[in-house]
Design brief:
By secondary structure, the protein is of the alpha+beta class. It has three helices and four strands, in the order E-H-E-H-E-E-H. Helix 1 packs parallel to helix 3. The structure holds glutathione.
Length: 88
């Protein structure tokens, strides 16, 4: 999955892991929406874990990273992420 939104060049990445129930509900929402989101499992890829920790000083998942080119925003809270994805 590319995670590239060609319309406005914004890229979305979801930091998550499989056994996290909050992540699972975000993943279920992802199945139902049109957004292209790159999945970044922090348990299976330590680089993703490090990137999350270094940028946010947290290891909490789910976290949606929104890259606009000039900056990155990091959105926590599964409900906020689901609402955001549904609004795209
Ligand atoms: N209120 C948060 C809860 C997220 C949460 O508790 N995630 C757990 C995994 S299931 C976690 O990342 N815990 C480790 C930490 O917070 O550092 C949400 O709905 O997203």
């Amino acid at each position: 999955m590319s995670g590239n939104n060609t319309e406005n060049n914004t890229q979305y990445s979801l930091y998550y892991y499989d056994s996290c129930p909050f992540c699972v509900r975000v993943l279920r929402t992802l199945d139902k929406v049109n957004a292209k989101v790159e999945l970044r499992n922090i348990m299976s890829d330590s680089a993703h874990h490090s990137a999350l920790q270094q940028a946010t000083k947290r290891s909490s998942v789910p976290c949606l990273r929104i890259d606009t080119g000039s900056e990155s925003q990091w959105m926590f809270e599964s409900m906020d992420i689901m609402r955001f994805l549904q609004s795209l």
